[in-house]
Amino acid sequence: MPEVGLTSAPVRLPARFIAAPRLPEAGVRLALIGFVTLVALVLILGPIGAILLKSLQNATGELVGLANFRAYASNPALARSIGNSLLLGGLTTTITMLLAFPYAYALTRSCLPGKFVFGGIALLPILAPSLLPAIALTYLFGNQGFLKSWLSGGSIYGLPGIVAGQVFYCFPHAFLILSTALALADARLYEAAETLGASRARMFRTITVPAARFGIVGATFVVFTIAVTDFGVAKVIGGQFNVLSIDIYKQVIGQQNFQMGAVVGVILLVPSLLSFAVDLYVRRRQRSLLSARSVVLKPTPSRAFDLAMLTVVAIIGGLILALVATALFASFVKFWPYDLSLTFGNYDFAAYDAAGWSSYANSLKMAALTALAGTLLAFSGAYLVEKGRGHAWLGSLYRAVAVLPLAVPGLALGLGYIFFFNAPGNPLNGVYGGLSILVMATVAHYYTVPHLMAVTALKQLDGEIEEAGASLGVPFWTTFFRVTLPICVPTVIDIATYFFLNAMTTIGAVVFLYAPATKLASVAVVEMDDTGDTAAAAAMAIMVLVTAAGVKLVQFALTTVAVSRTQAWRRPSAAPEPEGTKVPSISAALAPARRPS
Q1: Is the per-residue pLDDT at 437 higher than 70?
Q2: From its phi and psi, is residue 581 left (phi > 0), alpha (psi between -120 and 50) or beta?
């Protein structure tokens, strides 16, 4: 034991007061920020740069400038796809917004019964692959459709079918954004308007719509981007109506023309980047709607209005349930429409696809790994750049890369992964063809939203938490594990669920990257539909939907348990604490980790 000679007799210090070797915090923080930034650059910026470079090369790898773009524009069929995609995006966005706004308005501004049920119905489309509505529409209105006579000689294949399927698939995205925009409002404005004799319609025009304009603009561009870049719906029900997402698939899979596929991928980036830029501009101009003196608006019962809103959500929710129920019923039908007897034979996937049930198992494995890796990277990265000190330039670089995937379509990113990771000179070439590249592409594709979720949660925590830890001589990683992480447990669960659900349903980001041994359930749906085994494709899509719904229930249970055990401070106390009661504090949480003086 060390001796300290403060007097003539040496004094022996107890072991607990001897400082253990400590890591340099600044160096550790710099290394961690550098690591997460490097990973983000490899997963996101590398593939995007690779697709941009490939679009400027010929088949031998020589730079040819814009020659590939000129060749694309000179082909009338390919050039027509741009106009078709813009038309599709415009129609889908208009119809989706006209349906999603009244649905969100009904659930946030009325007292209709069963709000929880109708809210769950609105989210059903987000739990299934985008091919599910297209398959359901073919069973209803296709050549052998049950309701084909309703089309009066028309066809569901082509623009009408793609728009209908896209509206179904885009609806929950618009609903979530609009619900958030409409959920909070200052009741004082409405009281003043009523005092001045304004009608309900005028209050809607002059107060409600202006207050929700940022949500409306954001939802509009999100829906437009999804409609233009989605692959699944157009693949199943597009017919001869060519769009950009189908063109890139045909160029790469059908013709092995990677240069022209890269050109289409770059073109797909344009509407996404434009939408991202406009949305970013609108968000920067947004101002807070509620002040410290505001009174949150709470809907009051009105029999006529509530009945009208109930009718609206019942009709829209009924349409959503009708498509899901059609796909579910079709998955059990023996031979549509001639033999409607029920069977489990369509779930014997080995009879329709060589991979059998392994595709579903691969999806579960890939989704779990994506949730684990994505949550770890997104939350830790956000913590390091938002709660760290110094290295501002590195944090700014990480933030810029983290929000970039929001503007990159899945098909373009997946194609970029081929060019980047399949390059012979890339030391990470070994991941190509395995499950790991699917995980990497999925994490990159859906990275932005979890990053923003983590940043939002961390910004709600006062910086005094880190200052308290530093003043107590506690390393930042101890503060993170003992204080920050327990407070943010619900957000961590939400992030992991988001990654898992999107990994189960994604198609565009992985359709170019899978190998026979790593085929996913969503890809199996595409292939079984291509071979005419539509009932089996519907069955696999239903399996994904049921799995996603089960994960949402698990998320709810985990969040409830986590909040009750780690965040008792959120619950208001029923009675004041007795005098002398010790209240848990940050200092108490960090006390065992204090460094000895």
Answers
A1: yes
A2: beta
